[in-house]
Amino acid sequence: MKMPSLEDELFPSTPGKFKIDRAHNMNRQFHRCFASTSTMFLWALFLIALTASYLSFQSFVDSGSRYFSASWGGIQWEKHVRNSAQIHRSGGMSVLVTGAAGFVGTHVSLALKKRGDGVVGLDNFNNYYDPSLKRARKSLLNSHGILVVEGDLNDAKLLTKLFDVVAFTHVMHLAAQAGVRYAMENPNSYVHSNVAGLVMLLETCKSANPQPAIVWASSSSVYGLNEKVPFSEADRTDQPASLYAATKKAGEEITHTYNHIYGLSITGLRFFTVYGPWGRPDMAYFSFTRNILQGKPITMYRGKNRSDLARDFTYIDDIVKGCLGSLDTSGKSTGSGGKKRGPAPYRIFNLGNTSPVKVPELVNILERHLKVKAKRNIVDMPGNGDVPFTHANISSAQREFGYKPTTDLQTGLKKFVRWYLSYYGYSNRKGVR
Ligand SMILES: O=C(O)[C@H]1O[C@H](OP(=O)(O)OP(=O)(O)OC[C@H]2O[C@@H](n3ccc(=O)[nH]c3=O)[C@H](O)[C@@H]2O)[C@H](O)[C@@H](O)[C@@H]1O
């Protein structure tokens, strides 16, 4: 038997086919070779095309997933924003509420929605205090048809987008880094939210067409070391005692500039130690309640010469009435597209209770409502930004929109304690009301 030659190996004969000569074989080899090269080339092209399409598909999927996983953006999201901003009463307003998952923001958003105004919330859900409380407030708002967009004031694209989607008539600006004493720990957060964030919001509002009217939260802390009692809007506010107060005072000056240059209608509200259900865990009435219930001591500060500190504690429902009154009387911004067309209102109001209560009395009331004795630890007020007392003169707000607080500390704390016990699951505990 003939051993297969290399040539035979290369060009195996096909049974039944005639034998080909060497030249023909070479020719065939060439054609085969060429054919296989072009096939390879085609395959290579095919693979390249496949790889390219795979890569572009991947990047589509990537950008798509980024797009869909972002907390804002997209057709469905815009629809939600529009729905939330929908006005359900004649002459109503559509309001962007910043800091909507905050204490005051939640209450104001609900009150606006209940009377038929459109509300879209914005909140960055930072962890200055327990974010789960903010999430719970957000759920409450959602259950009333209010969308809370998760995002930061410093996100220019988000702010612009919101104004592209909705022609907000008003902005209720409550987002801020709050807390007087925390400013020594984290000064940058105050600059980030209360200065840079505010400017970003004003930049967006001044360019919006139509421009919204802006009502925003200043603070009683701007009175700082002012000793003239009660505090009136015309009193000195150039002696802040904390960086927090300084950023709020800066906010008053910054908003004035935007009113002056761009015709934005501005109302600044100086809130006086607001308290109530769904409140802020960093505030004294809240942390005292927590400690008293847990049997832990509370630290009570006292001022010079062992004097008691006092605050014009103001109940949240009264503050909400003040916010709505301010929105209703804000007047219009006059500019459009960044151009001023005429003078616009610039207002500042105290929103307080007009009857300061000493901190030891606050603790007495809590003890009575909780039916638990507090373990008092009394220390001299550290030099950390605190002021000895606050006391609001509210005649301007009274004159302008009939502001009249009606809840005293005893009544307001009772409502707060009832909420606290229910929210934190103490309701069934014996001895605690
Ligand atoms: O009205 C305002 O402008 C400010 O009110 C509060 O600031 P503050 O009045 O200092 O409220 P708390 O922190 O609740 O303090 C209330 C009182 O309790 C005292 N306190 C606070 C904390 C503590 O551990 N012990 C204590 O005795 C404070 O010295 C103060 O006299 C808010 O925290 C600020 O965000 C707000 O801007």
UniProtKB/TrEMBL annotation:
Transmembrane segments: 33-57
GO cellular component: Golgi cisterna membrane
EC number(s) reported in the record: 5.1.3.6
Membrane-topology descriptor: Multi-pass membrane protein
Principal location class: Golgi
MF-aspect GO terms: UDP-glucuronate 4-epimerase activity
Keywords in alphabetical order: Carbohydrate metabolism, Golgi apparatus, Isomerase, Membrane, NAD, Transmembrane, Transmembrane helix
Protein name (Swiss-Prot/TrEMBL): UDP-glucuronate 4-epimerase
Organism of this sequence: Durio zibethinus (Durian)
Gene from which this protein is expressed: LOC111286292
